[in-house]
Amino acid sequence: MEFRQLGKSGLKVPVLSYGTGTFGGSNEFFNAWGASDVAEATRLVDVCLDAGVNLFDTADIYSDGLSETILGKAVANRRSQVLISTKATFKMGDGPNDIGSSRYHLIRACEDSLRRLETDYIDIYHLHGFDALTPVEEVLSTLNNLVTSGKVRYIACSNFSGWHLMKSLNVSDRYGWERYAGHQVYYSLIGREYEWELMPLAADQGVGALVWSPLGWGRLTGKVRRGHPLPEVSRLHKTGDMGPQMPDEYLYKVVDALDRVAKETGKTVPQVALNWLVQRPTIATVIMGARNEEQLRQNLGAEGWKLTAEQIATLDAASDVTPIYPYWHQRGFTERNPEAAPAGLWQRC
User: Fold this and answer.
1) Helix axes 269-278, 248-265, angle to 10 degrees
2) Which of 62, 125, 180, 187 is catalytic?
3) By CB count within 10 A, which of 25, 56, 99, 281 is most buried?
């Protein structure tokens, strides 16, 4: 398993990591993802560790905390062998302070996560989203204190806009506080908006990307194809309207290209889609999900080989879209702004 540094930090993470949103299944939304109990979760952790994957990602809201609880039990006797990433910010109760990134909520959320995970430290602690009602200084001073107290090793954010991230980095630099080492982002062959601003920002500022939903909210599993109904077992039946949307024809165009490359490489569609991501600039780790051991082992096959430049170009062309303003305008001035070109940062690297 290849390991990469998380941004400019000294922490090395596996290029593939495991997302445990499939642990628990305590409500309808997360049950559609998966419902692994402690026994199955322990087996999945075994498979990951045997393959060299030692980073496990969760969040306090996943199955109302049950994902953290199950993960904690699954790694209980090997805590020193694993890296745990979890998140806070979203609503975890009915009180007015049970949401957001205030000092009050973050300290309480961190303590609750530590208790559920049965550990005394979190390796990577994310803000799950941006809280515009809490001063950035309050947020970052709190996260800095969590690091200096030893409860958190590294901090990261998730789902930030470019200005959210840049303002936060500026505040950290101004006061000498911990910087976000990573940014957990949605990025896939059918969701390339990360490339427009967040990827150039990450490259410039040294922020590693941790990719969530790399198979496009379950649409790039190889089971969704032109002229075929959704498979009987698919979380898209219950969650399709909640995730990113795109025209059917665009999706099928990308899947057609994936099919062609999969046949050339002898790999599966998900393996090709994941491998494309692994090779993109700024990517520290791709968080793969799996509801069972079969899916997990298939996804692990995305590492250890590389698509050719021609195959990458085929996938790039099939998945390219005209960006929103001002990015489409910047594409007209690529002689002075080469990163605005399609796959511009990729070409530079």
Assistant:
1) 90
2) 62
3) 56
